[in-house]
Every structure is written in C-alpha cells, then in structure tokens.
Amino acid sequence: xxxxxxxxxxxxxxxxxxxxxxxxxxxxxxxxxxxxxxxxxxxxxxxxxxxxxxxxxxxxxxxxxxxxxxxxxxxxxxxxxxxxxxxxxxxxxxxxxxxxxxxxxxxxxxxxxxxxxxxxxxxxxxxxxxxxxxxxxxxxxxxxxxxxxxxxxxxxxxxxxxxxxxxxxxxxxxxxxxxxxxxxxxxxxxxxxxxxxxxxxxxxxxxxxxxxxxxxxxxxxxxx
Amino acid sequence: xxxxxxxxxxxxxxxxxxxxxxxxxxxxxxxxxxxxxxxxxxxxxxxxxxxxxxxxxxxxxxxxxxxxxxxxxxxxxxxxxxxxxxxxxxxxxxxxxxxxxxxxxxxxxxxxxxxxxxxxxxxxxxxxxxxxxxxxxxxxxxxxxxxxxxxxxxxxxxxxxxxxxxxxxxxxxxxxxxxxxxxxxxxxxxxxxxxxxxxxxxxxxxxxxxxxxxxxxxxxxxxx
DNA sequence: CCAAAAGTGTTAGTCGTACACCCATGT
DNA sequence: ACATGGGTGTACGACTAACACTTTTGG
Lengths: 224, 224
Prior knowledge:
By secondary structure, chain A is of the alpha+beta class. Helices cover 24% and strands 30% of the residues of chain A.
C-alpha cells in the first residue's frame, strides 16, 4: 500500500455511542445538543472524531467524557456506518457502540465546551438527530434488546444491586413483554448470573424487597 | 471539527476478513501470501485498505475479489482492532468480518497481482500471519462458534442444500462436540430454519440422504 | 386492621435426551 | 445377502408455564 495514494487520503473515523438507561420503567437514551458546525444547534448522539494515536475504545470514552462528563462506561461495538456522504465535511466512518448505565450513578454534565442540554430522552420520543444518528439509534435499540437477552449487560445498569421487581420492570420495558413474577424470579436465578445479598431496599409502605447483584461471570447462558 | 487538525490526519482503515469453509469435517480459513510490502512474502488474512469513496462492506468485497478472486460473500462484522501501532506504515484501524462459504462453489484465484498461494488452511494449523491477523483470526473463530449456534449463518456454506449427516458433521467440527443423529435432526428441524426438498444426494453404496435447504428467514431462535 | 407489594410452591404440559430397530442402496 | 449409512419412534427426566395464597411493611 502506498501511503500517499489519494484513494486512502482524507478518511476519518467517528466514534458514536448510544448510552441507555431505564428510568421508572421508561427506556431512555443520552443525547446532546451540538454547539459547533456541522449540525450546530442540532441534537445528536454522544460522538466525535477519533484521534490518530488512540484506540477506538479510548477515543469513544474520551468523547463521552468531553461531551457528557461521564467516564468508564461499559460499551459494546454493534455496527459500522460508512456511507461516504454521511458527514458533510469529509469522509467519516462511524464506529458505533451501545451501553446501559445507572442514571443516578453518573451525573451528566449538561453543558460542556462543545455541547449543551445533554439529557436522557425516552426512546419513543427522539427528535431529529444530526448525521445518520437516528438510523444508528434505531439499530442500537434492536441490538440492546438482543443483548439483554443473551448477556449480563444489565449488570452495568445496576452496579450496586437491584430488587427483583425492579429488574423485572427493566426487562419488560426494554423487551415490551410482561413476565409472571414467580417464573421471572425462577428463570433469572437459574441463569446463575445473579446472587442475593443480605441487604433490603428502603421501605415505602409495603414489604421490603431483597437486593440482588450480578456476579462477576462471563457465562453466556441465555436469559430469555 | 476542524478538518485540518493534525489529530485527525493520517488515519486509514483496513478491511479484514476471516472466510471459513468446512472440508471433510475440517474447519478451514482462507489465507494468502503477500507479494508486497509491508509483510512481503508473509501469510495474511484477506484484507486491504478501504478507499475513501466506498462503503466498508463494498471495500471488503472488492478486496476479497482482488486478492482471492471470489465475489458476493456473506459477511458479518465481528470486531475492530485499533492499536495505533498495528500497521508499520501508518495508523490503520482494522474493521473485521467473518463469513463461511462452500469451497466447491467459489473457485479461489491462487495467484493475483498482489497475492499468491491463496488457499484453505485448517484452523488448527495456522502459520504466523502478518499484522495482528493471528489475534484477529482467533477472535473470528470464537465468534463463528457463537454465530452458528444462534443464526442461519451456515446457509451460506450450503447455498444449494445439504443432507442431515453433512450438516451435523459441520456443527460437530466447528463446535467440537458430538450429537445424537436422531436428536440432531429433531432439533434443527424444530428451529424452523430449514426445510426438506424432494432431491436426494448421489449414492455411494448406502442409503441416499434427503437434501434440505435453509429457508429465507431471519428468525433468531437458537439452534443449540 | 387494611392496603400495597414481595415472597413462595405445586401441577400440567412441553421439550430435550437417551436409546434400538428398520430401510435403501451398491456390491 | 451383506455391509454401509440413513431414517424413524418411544419413554423418561428436566425444564417451562400457569396459577393462588401468605408475609411484611406503613399508615
């Protein structure tokens, strides 16, 4: 390969992330408003250009910190978007990641050097986004559904533990189906992914629920 | 984003493919010998640099045609390798695909402008490869195992149909486990992925086997 | 003691697994 | 007729799905 061949010049790489949370039964995604061109003033996913001396994951985490103020997010690659015209300035290939986090653990910086209005938006009410980010987000939502069924992805939503009713509502919210309480409990326990603690949730007028945590395991037994 | 910021300059994209086949119960991968620098004379996966005006998948297919003479391979993205030093000439991010094909349907061009000795090699006996291709291949093998369990990926190995004993041997070869003939048949039929034809295989001294084909379906029910 | 939500157990049906016999072919 | 490998059915155990009552708390 000849380094100066124009065919290989002027390529850039975007890192793009769809970061989800679940808030009172509503699945939401983190979006921001851009302060700079291109797409100045428009909504977008958390994203930016990769530097030429960093790993893709490193660049993604850097962008998330710069544009939303949060760090060390667990992310999974889910797709590439590479239409040569997807960015108006130059050719940018988008490498796309998804993650899910506890919104109360990560404090979003609403306003940064390059962004404003960073916040969680219900995935059913997403405005028009910059670039091809609406398309990317739709794909991310599909992948999120697949991944929570076949992995312990949700451990990152509940780093400090969860109750059975809580996590059941999350599965129901993301997958749009309902489960029997008793069978749900049996099924998720049978995967071996989670384990109970001796902690109890705070009371609010009814029977307190036991708190469970995800084990540190990479077992890939399907959940549903 | 400022297009001329040196942080974003001198980035390139490699497309890399691990193309598998199964030959008499042996899982093999297509590798080639490079005629040019870097890594002149060394083995590598089928790969090359993306042009700045093409989609990633288009570039991948072009490279496969240029370097192995075959076209229209079904490929799935499985990982990104982005160590800034993975290529000696300039920073190249590797976008990696895997596929599996019928080796009798695709005639490999052993010798091309840029490559020689293109051929199928058993995955248990892979030489040292250029770049980080050994690492990429190992990841591809892991992903291949996952994918044949949860998708109709193998339909691309048998575009014209297969017999039960044939496909059973393929699953056994890739997954390194053995199945009971009768239960294997029931399980793969129960997925609804395949359907029988009225064709029979050619005889060779024993009872001829029925030929089955994969249906055109995107159902994601797990196979095993 | 009442309302609200959590926790538990049993039964029926379905699915997976183990296993043995018959069938179609070429020689 | 025999050797080779393909095709089928059944019975048992494991898992899944449906379902109702009891428990703990705050008010």
